[in-house]
């Protein structure tokens, strides 16, 4: 299975670099860090590029372990090994909960705090260059003001014309947090891609995907 995924990853990364892509987003939960690392190692020289010419983001879940610092450090070290790099440009806390707990579990606040502080410590070692979060709401970001040395560099959330999150975006803008969208095509939702306004613009510009993506720029 690993070899098959690698064969799919190689042409995808090669085509992305050729098209000008310089940001690559992965996560522990995607189970493809090693394949991405191998593909970049092979493809970067073919495009006269070096590691510092690309930006790599990965994500991890908070740890529910009492030994959270060691667990977070181990997870980051594994990502460094998988991605075949000495540093990661941006590490995000993937979700404001652990993989095991329910979203409304009050212990999640402690787990979020522990994960954020562990990543800030790792940032001092230069193994990661920036710390961010994903799927955080305003209440989660407000917590960080109480214990973090800095606010997150990034908050990566679902954002598209059917889910605009204006209040959250304004909060991030006002607090120096880069607001980064994912699922900008609404997970290929036909209600968005075939919307009357999108369809008219798509006919004019000969693309529906680019019309939808442009709303996030």
Automatic annotation (TrEMBL):
What SUPFAM superfamilies has UniProt attached to this entry?
A: NAD(P)-linked oxidoreductase (SSF51430)
Which family does this protein fall into? Belongs to the aldo/keto reductase family.
Annotated GO molecular function terms are: oxidoreductase activity, acting on the CH-OH group of donors, NAD or NADP as acceptor
Any Pfam family the entry gives: Aldo_ket_red
Q: What is this protein called?
A: NADP-dependent oxidoreductase domain-containing protein
Instruction: Spell out the PROSITE patterns in the cross-references.
Output: ALDOKETO_REDUCTASE_1
Segments forming domain NADP-dependent oxidoreductase: 10-187
- Kindly give the InterPro entries that the UniProt entry links to this protein: AKR, Aldo/ket_reductase_CS, NAD(P)_OxRdtase_dom_sf, NADP_OxRdtase_dom
Q: Which Gene3D superfamilies match?
A: NADP-dependent oxidoreductase domain
User: From the record, what ranges are coiled-coil?
Assistant: none
* Keywords, in A-Z order: NADP, Oxidoreductase
């Amino acid at each position: 299975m690993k070899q098959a995924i690698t064969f799919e990853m190689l042409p995808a990364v090669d085509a992305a670099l050729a098209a000008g892509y310089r940001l690559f987003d992965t996560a522990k939960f995607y189970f493809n860090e090693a394949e991405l690392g191998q593909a970049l190692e092979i493809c970067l020289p073919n495009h006269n590029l070096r590691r510092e010419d690309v930006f790599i983001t990965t994500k991890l879940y908070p740890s529910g372990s009492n030994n959270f610092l060691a667990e977070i450090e181990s997870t980051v070290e594994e990502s460094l090994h998988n991605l075949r790099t000495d540093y990661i440009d941006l590490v995000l806390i993937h979700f404001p909960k652990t993989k095991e707990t329910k979203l409304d579990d009050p212990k999640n606040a402690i787990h979020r705090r522990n994960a954020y502080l562990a990543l800030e410590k790792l940032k001092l070692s230069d193994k990661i260059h920036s710390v961010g979060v994903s799927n955080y709401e305003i209440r989660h970001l407000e917590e960080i003001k109480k214990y973090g040395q800095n606010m997150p560099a990034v908050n990566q959330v679902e954002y598209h014309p059917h889910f605009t999150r204006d209040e959250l975006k304004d909060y991030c803008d006002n607090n120096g947090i880069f607001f980064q969208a994912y699922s900008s095509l609404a997970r290929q939702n036909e209600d968005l891609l075939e919307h009357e306004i999108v369809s008219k613009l798509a006919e004019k510009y000969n693309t529906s995907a680019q019309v939808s993506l442009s709303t996030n720029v």
